């Protein structure tokens, strides 16, 4: 069973560089076009359903992809919701370090809770879709933490996921495997993860 984890299309807050989190900002015109482009890239595979986070930008991206591929839009899963960044939501990302040097935003969901929550969502989707390949539209931080939990790496060592990018994971007999990250084979991504980890270790 293969699942495609797709980051939603662009919003005006993405364009402005604002921390978004669980604030429900809709897609902009570029985001809708990105969703259509993502559907074209996914058309070579067989998909049984498309599901999403409950947030509007993810739902609309999923609906656009489903319409273009002729794949039914299924339910939303709370486990796929983006990390809650508390009081930092709406702040320019460029200002975060100055205002919160330790990234300890009041009211935020703990980093270590995000990946396991994402895995719980994947497990529910597997149960609900009986072995079919499923398109899942969610959020950048949620996807990155979920992938990192599967592979045992630090989420901050993973590359940034662009809007409407797709990462493939596979459910096998012994658990989850990451096949690609934002369209790049995981073996190649792994080299970058290890280099980033080394750089940060040497800098500390």
Indicate the topology:
Layout: E1 2-7, H1 12-16, H2 29-42, E2 49-52, H3 56-69, E3 73-76, H4 96-99, H5 111-129, E4 134-138, H6 140-151, E5 166-172, E6 175-181, E7 184-185, H7 186-203
Active site: 8, 82
Organism: Agromyces albus
GO molecular function, one term: phosphatase activity
Structure description:
- The protein has about 200 residues and is α/β, with parallel strands linked by helices.
- The chain has a single domain, classed as Rossmann fold (3-Layer(aba) Sandwich), CATH 3.40.50.1240.
- About 40% of the residues lie in helices and about 15% in strands.
- The chain is built from 7 helices and 7 strands, in the order βααβαβααβαβββα.
- It has helices spanning about 10-15, 30-40, 55-70, 95-100, 110-130, 140-150, 185-204; strands spanning about 1-5, 50, 75, 135-140, 165-170, 175-180, 185.
- Strands 3-2-4-1-5-6-7 form a 7-stranded mixed sheet, sandwiched between helices.
- α3 (about 55-70) links the parallel β2 (about 50) and β3.
- The N and C termini lie far apart (about 40 Å).
